[in-house]
């Protein structure tokens, strides 16, 4: 059993709380058996695992050590290190583009809704790390079953052009989603929580759609807006 937080293996795991070290090692953390099993089901490779309960293939650690390597205040009894996967940049006919989304809860919620609505391809431009523990938890494991391409603006534009997708910007100034015909090959662009969609993306398209709402409300949360757009697109295409 590992009982010291100064153990070299434990110190290396603690470093994975930061994006820098996750990128350097090409791994990430998962907490709890449910998310752990979901990751394995999706084909992620286990590097090492730690628990306060004796299990096959799992390093036994003290409560004190588990609290050190976990990223939650009240950790579950399992913390695992898994290898990151390469993303797929081959052909897809629809996607959602996240433009500088920084809140992990929003990011995770959008990923969860995207999987539910069939938008398995997600382009994340300068967003919070998809392997951030809060993103993983908020996605309820959907992050393991979606193809999230983290990139800069230029690469995002190249992917859009390569796949012949029509960019659609979500904005309060746009035409109501109830009054438009969605393109067959579409890329919804959802913007930053405070600043909305960047001018770079706005300059790339003339298609701007809005979600009608009560005049007393200025806007919806980006995660809610994303879910509404993706599910409404799916509904209209099924009719």
Walkthrough of the structure:
The chain has 239 residues and is α/β, with parallel strands linked by helices. The chain folds into two domains: 8-83, 60s Ribosomal Protein L30, Chain: A, CATH 3.30.1330; 94-238, 3-Layer(aba) Sandwich (Alpha/beta knot), CATH 3.40.1280.10. Helix content is 35%, strand content 23%. It has nine helices and ten strands. It has helices spanning 8-15, 19-25, 33-41, 63-69, 104-117, 133-139, 153-163, 199-202, 222-238; strands at 27-31, 46-51, 59-60, 78-83, 94-99, 121-125, 147-151, 166-176, 186-190, 208-210. The strands form two sheets. Strands 7-6-5-9-8-10 form a six-stranded parallel sheet, with helices on both faces. Strands 1-4-2-3 form a four-stranded mixed sheet. α5 (104-117) runs parallel beside α6 and α5 (104-117) runs parallel beside α9. The protein is elongated and about 65 Å long. The termini are far apart.
The CATH superfamily title of the largest domain: SPOUT methyltransferase, trefoil knot domain
The top-level CATH class of the largest domain is: Alpha Beta
> Quick one: biggest sheet?
6 strands, parallel
- The number of helices is 9
The value of Rg in angstroms is: 20 Å
Order of helices and strands: HHEHEEHEEHEHEHEEHEH
Low-confidence stretches: none
CATH architecture of the largest domain: 3-Layer(aba) Sandwich
Any idea what the shape is? elongated
Number of strands: 10
**Helix/strand-derived class?**
alpha/beta
What percent of residues are in strands? 15-25%
């Amino acid at each position: 059993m590992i009982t010291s937080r100064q153990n070299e293996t434990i110190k290396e795991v603690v470093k994975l709380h930061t994006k820098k070290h996750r990128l350097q090692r090409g791994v990430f953390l998962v907490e709890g058996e449910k998310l752990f099993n979901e990751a394995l089901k999706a084909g992620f490779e286990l590097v090492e695992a730690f628990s306060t309960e004796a299990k096959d293939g799992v390093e036994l650690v003290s409560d004190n050590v588990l609290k050190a390597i976990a990223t939650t205040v009240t950790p579950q009894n399992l913390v695992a290190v898994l290898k990151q996967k390469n993303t797929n940049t081959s052909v897809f006919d629809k996607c959602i583009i996240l433009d500088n989304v920084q809140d992990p809860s929003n990011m995770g919620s959008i990923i969860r809704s995207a999987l539910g609505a069939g938008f398995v391809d997600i382009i994340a431009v300068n967003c919070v790390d998809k392997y951030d523990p809060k993103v993983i938890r908020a996605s309820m494991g959907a992050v393991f079953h979606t193809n999230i391409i983290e990139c800069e603006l230029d690469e995002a534009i190249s992917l859009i052009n390569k796949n012949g997708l029509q960019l659609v910007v979500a904005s309060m100034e746009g035409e109501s989603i109830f009054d438009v015909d969605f393109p067959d090959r579409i890329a919804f662009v959802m913007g930053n929580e405070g600043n909305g969609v960047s001018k770079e993306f706005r300059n790339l398209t003339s298609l701007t759609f809005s979600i009608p709402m009560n005049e007393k409300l200025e806007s919806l949360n980006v995660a809610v807006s994303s879910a509404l757009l993706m599910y409404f697109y799916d509904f209209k295409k099924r009719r």
